[in-house]
Every structure is written in C-alpha cells, then in structure tokens.
Hints:
single chain, alpha/beta, Aminopeptidase, Leucine Aminopeptidase, subunit E, domain 1
Amino acid sequence: MTVFKHIPKLNTEKDLIIPCYKGNMDHIQQYISIAKPDFDASFSSFQMLYGKTGNRIYLLGLGERKDSVKIDQAFQKLCFEAKKYWKKDIQILADSFSSEEIKKAAIGMELAAYQIGQFKSEPVTSEKLTVAFTCDKKNSEAIAEGKQIGETINRIKALVDAPANHKTPEFLGQWAKDSAADSNYKCTVLHQKELVAQKFEAVLAVGKGSVHPPVVIITEYLPKKGKTVDIGLVGKGITFDSGGLSIKPSQNLHYMKSDMGGAAVVLGVVEVAARLKLNINIVGVVASAENAVDATSYRPGDVINSYSGKTIEIIDTDAEGRLVMADALSFIIKKYQPKQLIDLATLTGSVVRTLGYAAAGMFTPNSKMAEQMSVVG
C-alpha cells in the first residue's frame, strides 16, 4: 500500500529522491557532499549516495526535457528496484516540478506497488510506504489524481494477468458492475438471452465453442447534461483465444489469456474518468467471449449474421477479434452516435514485432484526431 502526501520542505536527515534533468543539476549540490558526482541524469538512471546522517539520497535521471512525458517510467523503475532498502517513507524533491510532472511521478510510484502472484497459495503482501512530495499545497490535487490513475492501472494489470479459468466473460461483467458501484457510473451486462434477442450474432458465433457464455458489457459515464456522447470506446474482450478450429500453435499459447487487453483498457478508462469526475460523456462497450474448440464451434467456411445485419463469411476462426468488434462497433454507433469513436484490441503481434514496446499502433482515416491523440499521448 502506498500513501501520498504533501510536505512544505525536505527533512534532510531522511531518505530522499532528487529528480534531475540533463544539464540542470545545480540544485543537487546543497543536498550532497560530493562536489561532482559521476552522474549524467540519463533517462531512468539513478545513483544512490549517503547523506551526512547515513540517510539515502537517490539522484534520479529524467533525461532531456522532451522525456518529461514518460517520467512516470523513471519513478516506477527506481521505486521498484530500491524500495526494499527504504524504511517506511521516502521524500521526493518536487519544488521545481509542474503539476503534470508531479502527477506523473505519483503514477510511477503507485505503479511500482503492483505485484504479480495474486493467485499464489501464499498471497503476496506489501508493506505500507509513505511518499512525501515537497511542493506547493495547490499540487495536492495533482498528487491525488496521480494516485487514482496509478491505482486503476494496477487494477487493470491484475485483470489482464488473471488466468482464463478465473477470468471468464461473466467475470469481466461482474468486475465492471463492481467498479461502477464503487466509482458511481452505470454498467449494463447483456447475457446470452439478451444477446440472442438483440442479434449480437457475431459475438455469439465466437463464443459457441465455450462452456462460458459470451457477454456484452456497456459502461456509461455521463456527467454532462444532454445525451451527447463525446467519446465512445469499444474493447475486444476475448478472455482466452485458442484460435478456434484454426487453432494456434502451442508455443506461447498461455499468453492468450491477455487477449482481452483492449477490453481492460476500456473498463479502466471509464473507471478513472468517473473517479476523477471528468466533465466528459464517455460510453464504453466490451464484447467478451472465449474462443474455444468444441463440437459446436463455428467453422472456416461458415457464413454468419451480425448485429449490423450484414453476413460474414468465416475464413479463419482465429480472426475472432474483428467479429466481436464488428458487433460492438455497430451497436455503439446505432445507439449512442458518439462524436469520436476509438476501438482498442490485441489484434495482432505484428504491431509488437514492428514497433516493439516503445509505441502502440494507431490506424485512422481522421488525421486531425490522430494528431490530437498523439499530442495527448
């Protein structure tokens, strides 16, 4: 558990973190006894020195100013690697930080609290850590916002990491319902009978081979007056993807429990928007199914119907993502007509092979929207 707070000034006898940008390190001399530390502030690098009272002083490299958009990664790495040496609290010198930089630092420190092993026989526990930022009192809101964003990201990471025998489509639906109750937004889960009645036939076709029926999850956060939806989000929620009858190779097949990553992002975005009380109308739709192999599975060569009324010929049952997304996209457009529509999916490993882990693939015919999202990102 991580607790964040604001303090007016550093206690130089306690452990502290001093963030440094390249070419801007003059401020560190008053806190350390070494005249010229062997440290160039390269991004995400850090060096530990001892203070006069034996306290630890961490110089944290933030790289160049252009790297400020990802300083949460630097704080996350430092906290993850060094927190085992800290006592129950750590200070961060944040006097020169903007509110945005403080928020990102808080996000990074919170992300470092995430631990895998939630399903181990002996549950993993973490000790309480208090993180104190030296900054103006007015930045307390940025600290709180960073913590809330970090907490939601950790919840989503735990959801993606969960095994498929626990994380069924019904489980995702219940997760969304619990989140809506806690964060004050609306959630509706459509089950088998509703899906049949409303003709979500592509979703139903993908889920036919599984003992776990598919669901469609509709989340609505609508704080603004009127029915206009500013942003519509659609997420691919395949809780396990065997490939269906066009079965995948066994190598790395266990990673297919995370084929609902797009759905997790949609659920997380709506939750955090509600937690932060953003003044924006958002609707998220998740189409969730398990693409399994059974006597009732849909087959290559089949022709199925869909929510839009168009028929679809199946060539490869491992193309299940575009089927469930087709129904979800048709539904959100017909019912909500959002001003902007974004779909998120783990559709292909080719994006990772092409771009690595430094960027995500974005495809849109709307260059203005693409530019806006790139700037925000």
